[in-house]
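INFO  loader      accepted 1 record
INFO  loader      residues=274
INFO  predictor   begin
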Amino acid sequence: MRRIRTREVFMTYIVLCVLSILALFPFLWMLLGSLKGRLDLFSIPPKIVFSPTTVNYTEAFVHKSFLKNLMNSVKLAATSTGIAIVIGVPGAYALSRSKARGDGLLLMMALLTRMFPPVVIAIPFYVLMVKMNLMNTMTGAVLAHSILTIPLMVWMMKSFFDTVPKEIEEAAVVDGCSNLAVFFRIVMPLVLGGLSAASILCIITSWNEYLLASVLTGKSTATLPVAIPGLISSNGTLWGEICAVGTVVSLPIAIFMLAVQRHLVKGMTAGSVK
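INFO  predictor   done
INFO  writer      dumping tokens
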């Protein structure tokens, strides 16, 4: 039985390793392509051993305006997530503790905003931003992305607030805590894992979003995913620079996920026992 168990564990790890290699291969190939010169990039058969160069990164982020696009992506993701936290967390707490009629309808309306594909709301957002004189501005893009991140924050945080026993809050009120003190000093420390998980998902949603950003932003406010198609023209496709920009788009999120994976797993698996 011990040999059978060892064999099963070994085969499981083999399958997981193969699946991991298949999943990571496109990213690794893009990373290698970003470090190749033009001759190495188009060599047949493909070169695995080559002299790495940073010319693609230099061309994209120094000679072109992709550094500005990168900063736009950072500002958009950070600001929309911050707005989602400021508005969504108190809203989720209120919905969790309120027993008023119509709470379920509010939650359903928030969920509907996540069910619609971005292409459905792109034109209404475009018309709205034109009338508000917010086209091609970072403010307009932030407002549009906040519409996507706030419902996500509300839905996730409400489930985490529901796991906090109300008796803890009642005991704090008996000890003299105000409502704000109960919220910030008692409840929030218990749901920090959930807040981390929700914030991570909001950042990823805003960072990777393409359609709304491409419709609502202009040349000076375009995000990094929106700027990548500019490397494809009638004169040809700059594959090396596309690989470099694609790597920069993917790598920060990957590093961020690895850095906070403990909080993400804790938040996503949090139960009623704290």
